[in-house]
Fold each of these.
Amino acid sequence: MTGPAVPQRLCAPEPGWTDTVDVVVIGSGIAGLTAALKARELGTVLVVTKDVVASGSTQWAQGGIAAALSPEDSPEDHLQDTLVAGAGLCDPDAVRALVTEGPDAVRDLIELGARFDTLADGDLSLTREGGHHRNRIAHAGGDATGAEIERALVAAVKRADDIRLIEHALVIDLLTAADGGVAGVTLHVMGEGQLDGVGAIRSRVVILASGGIGQLYAATTNPSVSTGDGMALALRAGAKVRDLEFVQFHPTVLWLGKSAKGQQPLVSEAVRGEGAFLVDHEGNRFMQGQHELADLAPRDIVAKAIMRQMLATGKDHVYVDARHFGDEKWRVRFPTILASCRSHGIDPVRELIPVAPACHYSSGGVWTDLDGQTSMPGLYACGEVACTGVHGANRLASNSLLEGLVFARRIAAHLADGLPPLREPVADIRVPGLVDADVVDEVQRVMTVGAGVIRSARGLAEAGATLGKLIEQPAGEPGTPGWEATNLVTVASALIAAATVREESRGSHWREDHPDRDDRNWSGSLDLTLPSEGDTARPRTTFVPHDTKENAHHG
């Protein structure tokens, strides 16, 4: 099965300068900065980030970070909740690593300087979110957990004289060696500074921590930098990407009207964890009977229930009712959400909060093993760009920050056994290409309609056909807008290919023409690669059954 043809590499000027380090980290969220702080003990480290160091998705995480930190909780309980949310596609070994190493990783964050909310006796204040059967969500600043974690990590990195940082830099493509391994990266540094324009960084190791793909869709909780750059460059270099069809749509994103686009304000699941509930336009609660946890069901269950309610009533949103919290609880526990709502003319202390699902998180990504190694020697990945096997078909709430933290540490622990030698890059014979930067709005529209919360063979085919036409539009000069557009269509093409092949509904992949979960035929993962075909490359899917882990072509 193939999707639209995409460029084999980005069209860009030849590098005008070269530098050499031991480890390049791409991205500056919780995964990237943790990896950098741990890897600095092993050699020279360079962090490359597309905007300022604190601009990624981590700072926007409201709810918190999940870990078994309470005497009433256990890693085994956390494991079971994660496996259930993952709808049969989690890797149990990866989940076990997450939940057993998570508590110590969070404690290390606290030692680093992250200040989590505490009770009067000094113990951590823990709450609950969708899919969790225990209070295990540690939070900071009420609902500003990600911002506090990012603050602590950025401060630690800036204290570390042995970590170099290049801000406002877009990584273009990977340098590869004769053995298929990674030899470094090419990047474009924007603005003033000693390093300017396109250059090359040679390195022993590249760690991808570049975040997600939220800008594929018209409405998302992701910041503008989330254009799938890491997944796209990994695909172009030949790395394996897994489970890309499982895009989680957060069920409760502040609804700002039909014309709202781009990053939308999140109404954290923690609001429902503290006792809020969903209602329709008539004030009826509709989650009862949908799941044993009702309003706190896993995200895919809640998002589907909201979509069904919207379709049944002809409305384009539902509501969160948290009026019973009162003014003080809103001010203390959810100050960020309170301010956000009020800035848009909604007072949640006295009014219902209009919400609708929006793109939130990619459960799939660049395939890695338990040590964060990808299918390419020398290339590692952690955080949202990676598919570690932890999330399966649907991420459990607040496991994302923990995954970035735990697997960044695992990468550094693996590299402590010895960095690979510096590889010699070979000439890149792949055909360069570029997509017109002006197609992004239309890409977001067709992905929202054809590959959004509800999918079908017809809708996916129409989205793929439109995408193919957009790719063929004449492009302008190479630069960040065109490179980002090319990355978006590369990931979109792969996502459409995977979503078309998986003819079932599971987790966050909902096919209205195949509405049932099909464990007999689809209990496994879809791997994607991007083999070249002349001047272009088309996504190729391979089905990997979870019982055998053997590769078998499936469609």
Amino acid sequence: MTRKQWYLSGFVAFTCLASTAAVSGPIENYAPVTAQRLENPEPNNWMLYRRTYDGHGYSPLDQINTSNVKNLTPVWTFATGVVEGHEAPPIVNNGVMFVATPMGQVIALNAKTGDEYWRYKRQLPDDLFQLHPTSRGVGLWEDKLYLATTDDHVVALDAKTGKVVWDTKVQDYKKGQYMTLMPLIVDGKVIVGGSGGEFGVRGYIAAYDAKDGKELWRTFTIPGEGEPGHDTWQGDDWKNGGGSAWMTGNYDKETKTIYWGVGNAAPWPGETHPGDNLYTSSVLALDPSTGKIKTYHQYHQNDSWDWDEVDAPMLIDLQRDGRNIKSLVHPGRDAIFWVLERTPTKINYVAGWPFVSTDVWKGIEPESGKPIVDPAHKPVIGKRVEFCPSLWGGKDWPSAAYSQKTGLVYVPANENFCGGFTGEKVALKPGELWLGTKPEDIGLKTKPGADHFGELQAWDPTTGKKVWQHNFPKSQLFGSVTATAGDLIFVGGTNDRNFRAFNAKTGELLWEQKTNSGIMGMPVSYEIDGTQYIAIQSGWGVDAQRIQDALVTNNIGIEANVPQGGVIWVFALKK
């Protein structure tokens, strides 16, 4: 496979699919989802992307724990019927599981038995193309659920039957706009962000009325003329400056503030768009009622490495340096572990340190939190520049987790990967890739003598010290992490198809299970009739497969035939 073939391997030959079809009948006694339930979710459910608005990825269930996890066994599986990267968490509401898959599909299941209630299959356009043909889940509100589609629509489905209630076009997929995220639902608003920065679009976050799909507000992540931050762009660069917002944000219910991660500028080389380029590679604080930007923090300016920062920071209350801090914690794609302070009017820099090795940053300005760039490792036009980590960064979109019991942050990191490319200035053609370099010119390599690549890390955000680390000698780590009150850390993400559980305090590997494919999505935990379950989607593809092809196989010769095809796995303790 050539590098160009690798980079374009996100293309899937979509077939026209039938509309919603009920299988075993409607769901009886569905529990409507309210603001109160989302703000204070019952321990037995998993109704948001990371279970709670703060983004911790933590389950308070502890029936499965360090002493008995060795007895964890599959209790049911369900094949999704499609290939490519399965990245959505199974969403569970009082015994009903909703699973989103690639190819615009949502499946409703009995979360105890795996029996199917209904299945929605979207009819996707024949000419649809994007680099990430996936979905990261459905949002829940009242008696409906909401899907953001790869052909750039928001669709509301009846939760009991799967029938379409409304369907709203967001933007034009033919211009490179698409969506992959799980919508964030706040007080009856369906909030989404667009993908497509690699096609030279202008990023946005938008809200829709959950009842009828009417657009309520739209906030562009690249400020236009007369807006604060516009002066950080030159000329018309802002019109197609990137700044995709393609991951779900987190929400501070006390201050009514949404924190949303924003992607890198377009195209990649910073020379093509001089300036700091707000609000790319940043976190935005938004008013959910109006979409107004309250404040922001830019993780790094004038991005030139494809290091988007779309994974929203976790909202954690910390004791640090002798004071209480309402923090934003974000292990970044730029290889920096960020600790920020959120206030009603400002985001303050608190601390930052490399969690994997990097040659791009010389340090961080102590007052502003602005990283200091080493120009020798910043891509430019007409000259090949190498940098570490690679364009996938220290941690890509897969989410870290925070345990309220241990006080530690668990990071799915990648070490010993580097990259480089030669920047070029080319004209934008709507709907075509606009990277600022040729796909076949993207050089990816591993460090000489490297003895491992993936790292599951545990950090104390109050001290900045690493508590433990588990290395993966033959694989990247490309999967989200989930913590539980049973002092367990669950994660997939490796090319050996294993799903694993670690001791949250020590990092000891306690359990592993081979699955049908590789795992990129996040584990979830729920409880029915007194039994705790762990659920995950196994289904390799997209960036995990590209890393495997370009770095692991081509550079170091570790072959890993990771079969594609999605399967939902559900585990419980042996009776």
Amino acid sequence: MFTEAEGKSLLSAFGIDTPRGIEIAVGQMISDDIREPLVVKAISSTLVHKSDAGGVRVGVRRDEIDEVAARMGEQLAAAGHRLEGLLVEEMVPSGHEVIVGAVRAPGLGWTVMVGLGGVLVEVFEDVAFGLAPLANDQILDMLHELRGMKVLDGARGGEKADIPALVTLISRLAGPNGLLHSLPDDVIEIDLNPVIVSGTRAVAVDARFVVGPVEDTGSAPGDRGDGRATDFTPLFHPRRVAVLGASGQRPNLANRFIRNILSGGFDGTIVPIHPTADSIEGLPTARSLAEVDQPIDYAFVALPATRVSEALSRGAGRVRFAQVISSGFGEVEEGKDLEETLVQTVRDAGIRLIGPNCLGTHASAGRLSFVPEAPLTPGTTAVVSQSGGLSVDILRVGSLRGIDFHSVVSIGNGADVTAAELVESALRNDEVRVIGLYLESLAAAREVLDVLTRSEMRKPVVLLAGGRTSEGSRAATSHTGALAGNHRLWPAIARQAGMTLVDSLEDFATALHALSTLDLTVKPNGRDAVLFGNGGGASVLGADALERQGLATPPLADSVVEELDGLGLPPGNGLRNPIDVPAGTLAVKNGAIAKDVLAVVLAGSEPAVLISHLNVGIIQRNLGETHGDVTGTVIDSIAGARDEAASNTHQLLVLKTDGSAETEALITTYAHRARTRGIPVFPAFEDAALAARAVLEQGQRTYQASRDADGR
């Protein structure tokens, strides 16, 4: 470690406030310009946590220093340390104790932590993380994530901390030109604990700089060194596809791929590559890629790992994209050399590599997919996944939720084409409106963060992260390193990048469905919601679900309630919000009464979201024979009220089932009807509430980014 005096000298050089002090030998006098009361700290090359070993005394007078030093020497010796000197500083006036720290991690760079400091960091672990460099608004976002922010704001008559001074301190440490940017690679951990934040200043009263071995992260995947952006159009709209690894005798994965794209209606050219067979799946073969005299947009490669590099080398100058399905590369220790050779081979050949160790690419408009009976209706949602198996689930579950995909790309090891590069391409692609990511690597997420930070274009991004464990760094010396578990870093990256982080595949599909269905040019204000539908208990549960996602259901204004009451509705309605109406009310005008109700609500209020919920089974049993298609009429009424009001309110719909096959079939039909009118449909309130959060988060971020871009 640096000595504390060395660390504080560095801090001072970057304008970070530290106490006045001096480093002295035991028995040495200090000058009169160091004012009492004093803090005396032990200097020892083996001492990490000074307080635990009795190496800190506060409120010391000048004439007590020798006595304090003698006692410290005894206590340190008992703990196995030797007192080598003293750091004597002026005591900083009391204030709030905050910890600010940073730890360097391979692939991530500096991760920065802020939280309640002193012993509280160990007890409550009330901390927030971000990745350097940090802008001031990102630092404020971190502070507002703390449960203890109310304490810093002066809760219950306490002293209000100088938040601008704290932001300035963190910026000088972790901003674009801060101290972290200038430190040598062998500085790996920093703790400023505590930083005393009073009403007028923020002072780093303790500083720990840890030095360790420099980790070689190697060259970054996707970094070809030429600065050129790849045009991914041939990948998503291929006209000539080569397939390597299909069998002329026993069908395998490559054979199934050929069958999938033929049955999906691919109308380009398919060229199976085989050294001996004359035809495969009824298609004429070529002996190698060298025999194909026309450019190949996409090569699907399912050969043994040891044969892949040689086979692709024959496609130099001919193949644009090669997706290597084969495993046995960098995901296992014995395959790392094979992966390095493969990457060098494709770069020499001018081929962009997807994979290896993946499943394939799904491109709806290109009629290309790696799954049988693939959903190929062209859409605007592009997904990048580090998992091949989950890519299949994303397609299946997403299709059932009503998502029409632009593409789903399984990137596996990401040895060449990375998630970040595909995100950058999707931001430029007018065919894509919404981006979904499944990532298991924090380093890959950091690359995405960098792309989103520097891009002037912004689109909604939803992140599903694998490996969100609470495991920290067991070998970490600093509090920051010990607390930097993945469960904190994933939310930090998502917050800083402006991505919506979700917890499950179902939530992933829910958020993508809402974002791809709603008109995101609508810019709602606030986070209020109105609930409308049949079932009072259901409405209560809906309000609870919304509150868990950070939305409120405040009562409607008295004027709105009076106007609703004036509609002449049957008795038994709750009109305050939630608006609870029994099936008998929905029967008025055979369901068209819903348009009257929602028109009043939208004319007299402007909630961010309006969630209608219908118990389809109850409506069908009670009203179907006498009032016709009430549910369908309500859906049309919701869309009609929205269109006529032209309000800044997003409309969402929950269609609840009783579990019967008849009701399930009806819901499928009604869901399609709603989606064609631009209304996303969900099976439960929990899904609608999560969708509402995602839409409000992403809509605001997309809107703000577009304004910032216009300002530039």
Amino acid sequence: MTETQNKVEITFEDFKTEVLNDYKIATISRECSLLGRREVLTGKAKFGIFGDGKEVPQLALAKAFKNGDFRSGYYRDQTFMMAIGAMNIEQFFAGLYGHTDINFDPMSAGRQMGGHFATHSLDENGNWNNLTQQKNSSADISPTAGQMPRLLGLAQASKIFRNVKGLEDKTNFSINGNEVAWGTIGNASTSEGLFFETINAAGVLQVPMVMSVWDDEYGISVHARHQTTKENISEILKGFQRDEDNNGYEILTVKGWDYPGLVATYEKASAIAREEHVPVLIHVQELTQPQGHSTSGSHERYKNAERLAWEAQFDCLAQMRNWLVDNNLATTEELDEIDNQAKKDVLEGKKAAWTAFVTPMKEEQKELVDILNSIAFSSENKIFIEKIASDLAAIKEPIRKDILTTARKVLRMILSESGQPQLASWITNYIAKIQPKFSSHLFSESDKNILTSTEVAPTFDPSAEEVDARLVLRDNFDAIFSKYPETLIFGEDSGNIGDVNQGLEGMQEKYGELRVADVGIREATILGQGIGMAMRGLRPIAEIQYLDYLLYAIQIMSDDLATLQYRTAGRQKAPLIIRTRGHRLEGVWHSGSPMGMIINAIRGIHVLVPRNMTKAGGFYNTLLEKDEPALVVECLNGYRLKEKMPTNLGEFKTPIGVVETIKEGSDITLVSYGSTLRLVEQAAKELETVGISAEIIDIQSLLPFDINHDIVKSIAKTNRLLVIDEDVPGGASAYILQEIVEVQNAFKHLDSAPQTLASKPHRPAYGTDGDYFSKPSVEDIFEKVYAIMHEANPSKFKSLY
């Protein structure tokens, strides 16, 4: 029996109590918005963006939202969060102030501005909670429509849990796939491509997704006539409506001020999505935004008097109030009492949140003032230091910038005095204590992070012949899919033909279309599928056919996946593996090496660049035992090269963040990765013929980079360095050089200037000659190394030119 069929009839008094409690929640939320705006305008908070005008539809959404369900929304959904019990008044204001203690601001520990909501999928140690016993909200991001791709994956997870065998014991993540993923978006943001890409993909996949469009006719100041054809998103999406012969959406429309209509609409949507696994679009129309878009401006600047009057009349709270009175569910006096009590509760909650926010900083302020006064007593700069301490003490509402700036200024004044060690120690300890509040959890800090991985070398049958390298990948994926029923892979051409290079040959036939799946040409939502499913305990591998096409998804990777652990202070994770291939293919659009752009855009995701398929397979095996996201870039021209087949498929592991020396040498250290290494190896052989001994190091992992600092150990021996890379000049090579020279302090060992050899600034031209004249060649590498040695010893190495 379904939940809808199993509902128990309630009495009129119970119904009355329920709807009055809804009104109370909505009123409290509205008061939070009104008082929150004042807190920004008085300077206590930096910025405010609130959910006023959207309260009543969010009450209806909360009623249909069950344990195990997931929300993927945006910054207007505070009423919903209050209605499901995931946020209270104090927590609302803690987020507005940016309180860095997750116990006070559970949404992000002050890392995101208010209005960005999340629940905790993980405990304090990074272990999964039972997601089926709580109501879940994936962590919001600000970029408009950026929540859409993730929503797709959150919904698809239910389909996987319901239909894939072997997942029956994953009861902490799903109960037979009965969970719905609920999305919310403003009507203007439906103009974004990510919205349409996700809508189309969900219709194709037929997943339990309910998409709510909050429509108040504006996008900041821009009216819907400039946003949407026909000024109506549900009207133009009518072609997605399902019928007897075709799958599609159920499309529902409802007025945003109609409380009973909203409740009925959301109950209907929940039943359709939950039971039939059909996506639903709910277009919530005639909403208002009483305070305008945000605290950055007033909506009176762009709304005329007629519109403002209409908004006052059709404010959803005003209309709900009328409905309660008209239906004898409450008197005006009763509702006034609720309103007045809400004002008091919000004011008290605000005060409590502010006190909790400033108290630790006032204690730190007093501590430093006492130290400064003590130091001043015996300082030559006594008068100046006492003045600085007095100024700090006079700040009624200090922030940590005030405190630390003051300490650092005084430190410069007492460099040769007895108080210097005490103040220097205080500053060091203060930074060590405070900095993690702003910088922790870029990566996992659980016992499953990649730094806990250990290498397991591949083993080989001595009599085995070499095979096409793609077969190593294929057979290793076979072992992975057999070992981990929660693992699945999907991408363009990944299913039926086994990917364009046949590294998945036969896998769909063996493991089914849900675990090894073809998808459409839609890179952003391929990533979104992976993010959402990973957030629900699956281990997806999202395949982007070529590295160049990653650009379609880089925004999602950068804004969502890479920041997830960070912006939740370690309370959510998505250990997604992104598989792609690149390097050395010829042509502008398939050259596959924009590494500098990638590594600087996706800090928070590991970037792995294996030189062959055995190394790549080892990375997949390592990552599946860990809890962090990663991008694996396979060598595009390596699938048909020969490698030995390991006998421990699925078990051998390539260590992450560890370089490998693949040739010993004494004159110069050559550092590279991926396909370029084969050119470096050939150049090194030719250098040997002229008396130059080159040591070759395979980086293997760009993020993290050489965690054991093995490269500097090589440079200490050779005293020279050349970084070879096929990215643009100043791209990944500049990052690599900075890591080696600055982080590892290699400059101490260098007898020659460290140098880089990269591609030309333009995209590579087509054809073999285009490749030769666009990217580093064997001859380029040889001559660059020879020139370095010529400068060091011109008598031994005569000038080539």
